[in-house]
Design goal:
The chain has 458 residues and is mainly alpha-helical. It has 19 helices and six strands. The chain has helices at 14-20, 23-26, 30-46, 52-70, 83-95, 108-144, 164-169, 172-189, 208-215, 224-229, 232-258, 286-309, 324-346, 352-357, 365-374, 379-395, 405-411, 425-431, 440-457, and strands at 149-154, 157-163, 191-192, 219-220, 266-267, 349-350. Strands 1-2 form a two-stranded antiparallel sheet. Strands 3-4 form a two-stranded parallel sheet. The radius of gyration is 31 Å and the shape is elongated.
């Protein structure tokens, strides 16, 4: 039975009904629908639209529905168009005609926007918790890495040595920004559309500020036409999820590279890698390939929904019904992906020997230039002198540390015996000790800062 049959003689075509129905998707927010209706019933009582007795019947009926939903005994019917129709249909079965008063002054347009916002507010903390768990795993890995050193890359070319802990932490901060974005978004989600009716407001004098407070919203949407169609929060949420996915894909891509035989910086644990049905020797980084690949789907959900929004006339249009699927899908994806990636990185074994062996003396070419700076030569000159040293070493099939002092002095007389200390990668790391640098002391500070942020949240 639909909520709108009065002006129709014929029934909706069966396939059209199926296309129109959103129940398979929006039953995810059934508890929120009951919560919204409960608060609305209270407003109806205050506005004297229902009597105390009727209000009590509605409340008890809704409580029963909530219980049925929680214990999964609520029976959805194929004739339920969406979650709002299903709850109202069931309420009518339980309390009879009084149920029909609940929708006074309300439209599914303000109702659905309210339910959806409530759902997001209820579910954001779990998503944030999963991001924090991954961050905690990264911090632990950073702490456990001690003074292990590895090559740092730019353009995927060997650049400068860094601490492994610094590399782990470089994946912590992007997630921190993701959480800040989600926290900021929360304020915009927390704006109440209920009481705006179909588009023009409600005529029964509902006091929306107290309604907002009752439902835990921070504020009340100020324009009814905007309120029923505002889905900015959906696009923003999908962007945040895409960004988390993008950060996971960046980490994942590096793990895929670093676990290959060519790099061999890490070894995957059996619990988070798979084999090949044909090649017995294979140990594949599937979890990280999925971590890399899922970002594509997340970005697709965002661009798909933005395209749906673009050019919609105000106010409510049925196109907006397409808002829930991408949000639920993006959430499910991350809720599965985040803990798997956290566990998969935590159980990898680092191979410090392989990391150390991948550092060559050329990675200290900048240190060589800095060495001459300390001898009083301007950096622009020292950069070019170090470049000549690199060229000479390559021509002689040597490392930078393989040139003799005489060869160095031929490049510039300021070179001295102490030049060879420059090629110790750990010394290079230790020199970069300003805030944010890779020196052990600086990384220690960074980790302390990160821990404070994580603890502050709990
Ligand atoms: N199922 C609809 C949605 O998710 C509810 C709102 C329907 N409103 C309407 N005027 N048909 O958007």
């Amino acid at each position: 039975m639909s909520l709108w049959g009065g002006r129709f003689d014929g029934a909706l075509n069966e396939k059209a009904w199926e296309l129109n129905s959103s129940l398979p998707v929006d039953q995810t927010m059934s508890i929120e629908d009951v919560d919204g209706s409960m608060a609305w019933a209270n407003s109806l009582l205050e506005a004297k639209v229902v009597t105390t007795d009727e209000h009590q019947q509605i409340s008890l009926g809704l409580e029963q529905i909530r219980a049925e939903l929680i214990e999964s005994s609520f029976r959805f019917l194929t004739s339920d168009e969406d979650i709002h129709s299903a709850v109202e249909r069931r309420l009518t079965e339980i309390i009879g005609v009084t149920a029909k008063k609940l929708h006074t002054g309300r439209s599914r347009n303000d109702q659905v926007a309210t339910d959806f916002r409530l759902w997001m507010l209820n579910n954001l903390p779990a998503l944030v918790r999963e991001i924090t768990s991954l961050q905690s795993a990264l911090v632990l890995l950073a702490e456990d890495s001690g003074e292990t050193i590895m090559p740092g890359y730019t353009h995927l070319q060997r650049a400068q040595p860094v601490l492994l802990s610094h590399w782990w932490m470089s994946h912590f901060w992007p997630l921190e920004r993701d959480k800040n974005r989600l926290a900021d978004l929360t304020h915009r989600v927390s704006s109440l559309p209920l009481g705006c009716g179909a588009l023009a407001g409600n005529p029964i004098g509902v006091e929306r500020e107290s309604l907002a407070k009752a439902l835990g919203f921070e504020n009340v949407a100020q324009n009814s036409m905007d309120a029923v169609s505002d889905r900015d929060f959906v696009a923003e949420y999908l962007f945040c999820c895409s960004m988390v996915g993008t950060h996971i894909s960046k980490l994942s891509e590096q793990v895929v590279l670093f676990t290959s035989s060519e790099f061999g910086f890490f070894e995957l644990s059996d619990a988070y890698s798979t084999g090949s049905s044909l090649m017995p020797q294979k140990k594949n980084p599937d979890m990280f390939e999925l971590g890399r690949g899922k970002a594509g789907g997340l970005v697709g959900l965002l661009t798909g929904f933005l395209t749906t929004l673009k050019g919609l006339p105000s106010t409510y249009d049925k196109d907006l019904q397409e808002d829930k699927y991408p949000v639920f899908r993006a959430t499910e994806t991350l809720m599965l992906l985040l803990p798997v990636i956290a566990a998969a990185v935590s159980t990898m074994k680092a191979r410090p020997d392989r990391m150390r062996n991948a550092i060559d003396s050329f990675m200290m070419a900048t240190d060589l230039a800095d060495y001459l700076v300390e001898k009083g030569i301007p950096f622009r000159e020292t950069h070019s002198l170090a470049g000549i040293a690199v060229k000479t070493a390559i021509e002689n099939h040597l490392g930078l540390d393989g040139l003799s002092l005489a060869q160095y002095q031929a490049i510039h007389p300021a070179f001295d015996q102490d030049v060879f200390a420059v090629f110790d990668p750990f010394a290079s790391i230790k020199r970069r000790n300003s805030l944010g640098g890779t020196a052990p002391e600086a990384v220690h500070k960074q980790i302390q800062q990160a821990k404070k942020l994580i603890i502050g949240e709990k």
